[in-house]
Design goal:
The protein has helices spanning about 5-10, 15-20, 30-40, 50-55, 75-90, 105-115, 130-140, 165-175, 190-205, 225-235, 250-260, 300-315; strands at about 60-65, 95-100, 120-125, 145, 160, 180-185, 215-220, 245, 270-275, 290-295, 320-325, 330. It is of the alpha/beta class. The protein folds into two domains: about 60-160 and about 300-325, Response regulator (Rossmann fold); about 165-295, Response regulator (Rossmann fold). It has a six-stranded parallel sheet with strand order 2-1-3-4-5-11, sandwiched between helices. α5 links the parallel β1 and β2 (about 95-100). One of its GO terms (molecular function) is transcription cis-regulatory region binding. InterPro entries: HTH_LacI, LacI/GalR-like_sensor, Lambda_DNA-bd_dom_sf, Peripla_BP_I. Keywords: DNA-binding, Transcription, Transcription regulation.
Amino acid sequence: MNLKQLSQMLQLSQTTVSRALNGYPEVNEDTRRRVADAAKRHGYRPNPSARRLATGKTGMIGYVMPTGATVDIDPHFVEFLSGLGDFARSHELDLVLSPTAADEEETTYRRIVANKQVDAVYVSSPCPADKRLTLLDQLHIPYIVHGRSEGLDFAYPFLDIDNEGAFHEAARLLIQLGHNRIALVNGEDWKTFAIHRERGVRKALNAGGLALPDHRLISNAMTDENGYRATRRLFEQDDKPTAIICSSLFMTLGVMRALRDLNLAVPADVSVIAHDDVFPWLKPENFSVPLTTTRSSIRAAGARVAERLVARLSELEDGARGEVWPVDLVVRGSIAGAPPGA
């Protein structure tokens, strides 16, 4: 079925049908839904070249992906991409990955915008005063940031979780259980999410008259091996922690392995709280001791970023709105009161 046949069947003009399928805001929601349902039912697919000529849009969302020997593909990214891809597919959008060397990101952004390769982009793992956001603001391409930056002199659209609040509540719960030697095994300290998580832990400790000394804060890429090494370092100290807050389930795999090698029991000797991005293949309740977690779905975040990008392309959203999701604290068997005499 072509556009003309679809419009005749619906008794609508070809212009109205085309605008409904391409998300133009002047088409009311009932008409948009009626056209979309009919197109799906009869197998209508717009010709990509014709749609680009008619609308000036490619139907593609872009992501500039740093690659190279020093860059690991993060499982968090894969799960996020699954959520984004599911939503994009349902709205007939494609995702374009543009690999680039870490020091050539700016050149790659300029190229894909100049060549009109994509309609919009999303940015992940922002850092303070992130130069990518300054560039995208200057290039005037629709974008959404997954996470937040700090220290910029302009507002920008973003979706983030309340990292500071989540880790504040985790630390506060441990303090209520009598722990006064709490360690934080965090992500890389140049990323804003890790800064916010450290800030949340420090605020809770300060409110309880406690501190987070340098030797009980370890920041690194969130891998199993780094979690293991961090835990071994923590227990080389004289004032060993009685509780660990960990920024990732993947790091927590290493944390639990190290504690087992040190013959330390969870939670009798050490309490553990981890952050859980909700992975279908790695569940906190399936650890040897079910893990207490701060919990938020990264797949749902991916879908929401795609939804907001579609809204921006359809002119249903504009401006620089920030969106911060609350984080659940799910208590399981990995925490208990501080050991006697600790």
